[in-house]
Amino acid sequence: MESNNKTQLTKRDITRTYLRWWWTAEISNSFERMQSLAYAASMGPILEKLYGKGSQGLKDGLQRHLAFFNTQAIWGALIIGTTVAMEEQKASGEDIPDETITSFKSGLMGPLAGIGDSLDFGTIQTIFYSLAASFAVTGNFLGAFFIVAFSVIHFFVGLGFMHTGYQQGRKSIMDILQSGRINAMIQTASILGMFMMGALSANMVRLETPLEFNVSGSVINVQETLDGIVPGLLPLAAVLLVYWALKKDKFTLSQLMVIITIVCLVGAFFGIF
Question: pTM, whole model, 2 decimals?
């Protein structure tokens, strides 16, 4: 295989690879290959620099990275950074079989996707977007700030992962997966996320009833009675009911939105809410 033994990659090369991955990771998906086209496009300049323009090594490298690949894009930068290091070693003459690179990618894309989806999109993004919504409903410009802040932080976290993967290699990813730190991070973020969702639900979910009953000449206001037991009991019950329905897969989110809308309209028409 042709190679350029004198070629050394720079930090700029790694950063440019990440930028290409960041822009393309989710725009070329297909059921046949998912993110592999974006992966190969991101690796293209690296492979060309290592093996030479138009070389057989470049063609073989692109073919390697067109194998099926699908992961969470930000955490997946760890995999790309590491495969860049492996390609650099392979181009310099080290005996690294093609199967080693492809099996490394396929073996880690699932675990890192699980971590990234649950931690980034399942928890951290939910917190940022919930904060954004709470400010937006009051007309505060900070609502837009939290949306932008999440994207900016996400970008630089991925960039850090890319350079870490390149500098530390395969051992760094295995250390992350095998240590208990990642589980502690996920658990901590989940607890924080539940706390934030509880606080935001109490402030943003509005549900009251004007119902009153006349008992032995005394007027009993249902809402005041409920507030005397637990303030915000109706909003809490509504949130828990929706959570239960989603948790048990009783309804999809779209179905629940339609049901909630119908219940609110009917309740308002009959003076229940």
Answer: 0.66
CA nearest neighbour of 155 among 44, 257, 249, 15? 15
Q: Which of 151, 40, 135 is nearest to 87 (CA)?
A: 40
Report residue 152 as tokens.
Answer: 């900016």
Asked if residue 33 lies in contact with residue 69, where contact means CB atoms within 8 angstroms, the answer is yes
**Who contacts 107 (Cβ-Cβ below 8 Å, separation ≥6)?**
none
| Beta-carbon-side half-sphere exposure of residue 27 (alpha carbons within 13 Å) | 7
Averages of pLDDT over runs of 10 residues in the chain (273 residues) are 63 93 87 88 92 88 89 90 88 82 84 82 83 85 89 92 83 59 61 68 77 76 79 83 82 84 86 79
d(CA 147, CA 190): 20
Cα distances (Å, whole numbers) of residue 41 to 44, 61, 79, 222: 5, 11, 15, 63
